[in-house]
Fold:
Amino acid sequence: MEIFNATGRRKTSVARVYVKPGKGDIQVNARDLKEYFLSEIHQTLVKQPLVALKAENQYDVTINVEGGGIKGQAEAVRLGISRALVAANAENKPVLRKEGLITRDSRMVERKKPGRRKARKRFQFSKR
Structure:
């Protein structure tokens, strides 16, 4: 039995994903998917690549995820699962590409600049 692994990133979250043939168990940081991602929306995000391939009950997925918030972690996991499924079978790539699950979302938070309140916000201008 072969294990396929991949890395998914989003914002400051990093997910290491391990996919192997199985019966559909998804473990996130040694906890069940529904226990880790409490929101139904985030659970759906994570399962999206498997649903697109109609392979929900064909693979066991083990995930280690760290950094960022829940939304960023869910999206990092989604990318990691997509990449691992492509590593498992190259024929999966066009289907996942069509769903937009292969592309890495590279947007990050802009850093705070010195002398400002936030990254771009300036103090109120006073003419007099």
